Amino acid sequence: MSDQSSIAPLAARQQLMTEPTLGAGNFLDHAIAVNPNRAVPFAYSHHLDHRGAVVLRGHSLLDLADLRDRYAKWYWANGVRPGDPVGIVVGEGLEPLLHFLALTALGAVPALINDAMRHDVMVRYLNHVGVVGVVADDPTRLASAYREDPQRRPRFIAMAAEIQAFDAESAQLPEAYPHRHAADEVVALIHSSGTTGTPKSTMLAHRQFWDGKQPRMVRFPAEPYDRLMSLMPHTHAGGLSYFLTAALLGLPTVVMSDWRRAVVEPVMEAFQPTMIASFPRTFVELATGELPVQGAAKVHSWFNTGDSAHYGHIRRLVQLGERPAGLIKPWLLPSEAAEQPALPGSQFIDGLGSSEMGMALFGQVTTPESTRNDRCVGKPLEVVLKAAVLDESGEELPDGTVGLLGVVTPSRTPGYWNDPKLTGSFELAGYWLTGDVARRDAEGSFYHLDRTVDVIDTVSGPVYSLPIEEVLLADCADLVQDCSVVGVPGPAGEGQRPIAVVRLQAEAGDSSAEEIQQAANKALAEAGLAALAAVSIARTPQDFPLGPTGKVLKRELRTRFATLFTGQ
Predict the structure, then answer these.
(1) Which among 245, 185, 194 has a CA at the least distance from the CA of 218?
(2) CA–CA dist 514, 288 (Å, integer)
(3) At a CB cut-off of 8 Å and minimum separation 6, what does 505 contact?
(4) pLDDT per residue as tens digits for the range 19-32
């Protein structure tokens, strides 16, 4: 890694905060314009050499612009024009980001697709979007699918390696390049995890996706030695958001291509990050078993977004690393160091957000000194004009009452691509419904209790799955490594019953489902929560199904155990 800092000076970052034309479609050009360190590598890819050692390769802002322009020439030569949606199905890491940069520079709309998506679902999704072309690492199966349905076939289905090998010397770019985006122009389509059905296609707009991130220009990073490890899927809004921020800051960032611990930990040890951003999936693995002490030695902050994380995992991670002078709450990092000594341990920033929200809109900080506060996601960030717990008619509910979480914010999505009816279903009384069930306390902190589709309708009233999972992971940690709680039908007239599918700790591998249920129900009774009607132990990956972004597919578990109590 270069000894010269790639981080943009404070004055440059302050200039970016107030730039009226900056957005998700042109952030690279703005970063190049203001950062005097534009030629210093900041974005790192990784691979293993022939001896199995980690090799990091750095790319500067100027390097990324050169790669972007080369890819853009291929797309232009193949007829891609402003407004055209193009499917991108390439492996995680830096590669999908390069396609995003190239397509947005042409004014086209990249439809970024996690290559772990099931193939038949992917074809349905591409057809719904109406892509003019698809670029994939291996387009063989896609081409085969479209031979059976030639009327739906996009204009081109190309191998990603073809673009990488393209001779761009004699190729042309349009006269108006890079494209100048209107504030509300769509710059990307991001699919949902599909945990509740066929993935939705969330639109990201040029200015909307930048709104709310401006304060990070002076709060993030804290020190010139900071380094970020991005474990987000970079086909997802979370990965794109962190990369946008890192590019504008010039923050040294390793863009990971795999989220599994076996791959992540050696790169952590080589890169020595001070900050790690991820969905909960990797944090579960890092918090399980022997902690990654060497790789996390310099970590002061863990950033989680998407689904909120569980205290049982957070409390282990914050034991790692150290917090340097200046690392203080309530959110992200301050612009000036406070006079305080380094503290042992790190902080975990749990941000409840989604592609539809545009970013994490709530933030809860946990440190080794924090008291436990299950399911608290903190208070809304500055970009949130209003957040409320609503009833089904859109009326605001009093503090302490459970209802639908709604937000009013310029960072929210314009809606779903080609689906105004679906967009309308998430709009209520001027709020955007996040799809979550929550409550607010008298101090204004919000508590995330469940996804609306996952609430368990028992004969005694609604039961929320996430607080139950919290207790299993924190209070039964000697037995339970990970878990998912769902509701399944009871006998006629009895409503649903909560059951848990659990992955066991290695040392608890011989435990029976009855033993786990007994321990869990004892802890749940002490917490004043509903008892589990059954426990199923997941002993294989198939028993604990994950979607392409690493989320547990609760809909599959509900189907799998639908007749557990009905005997049908």
Answers:
(1) 245
(2) 23
(3) 288, 477, 478, 479, 480, 481
(4) 999 999 999 999 99
